[in-house]
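Researcher: Here's the sequence for the chain we discussed earlier.
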Amino acid sequence: MAPETIISLPLPRPTEVPLDVAMSRRQSVREYTDDPLTSAQLATLLWAAQGESDRAGRRTVPSAGATRPLEVYAVVGRVEGLEPGIYRYRAHEHDLKRIAAGDRRAALGRAALEQACVTRAPASIVISAVYSRTTQGYGERGVRYVHMEAGHSGQNIHLQAAAMELGTVMVGAFDDDAVARIIALSPDEKPLYIVPIGKPA
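Model: Thanks. This is the structure I predict for it:
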């Protein structure tokens, strides 16, 4: 069996954009230039989505009972320093584990009901959830908590993108089973968000 491919990420890069300015800039952007993302930009966005914010292992988003049901993936087409492929973000290590090689953006775009923004963006972040991590302690109400956490994560990505003058849009319309196959999600893992990211056209 081939060894796992693990890619270290640069540290997240802080911006000097005030929060209120990032919020005022935030808008849905579906058209992007052909410019690639940098690995530092992608690393910062992944950290915003689910990264560790201190040495105690706290995350950038609140999580009910610290159950952390979310998983975060990067579907990479054009990112400097990264081969096209699908990667899982590992928050504690702040690195990427390659899940599959090759440019899967077109397949993801088809799974997203032919939304061109997903196909054309240099990269997309996919957020999924393992509901049982939260529902085993909170019962059926845990489903609501998982969705709240996904919203927190999505908003973090959107505001971080706005602060870096990148465009993004939160995509919820897609074929769940097709996305799960493309990302190779485990059977108990469900996709919740596709977040294409690029330089606004």
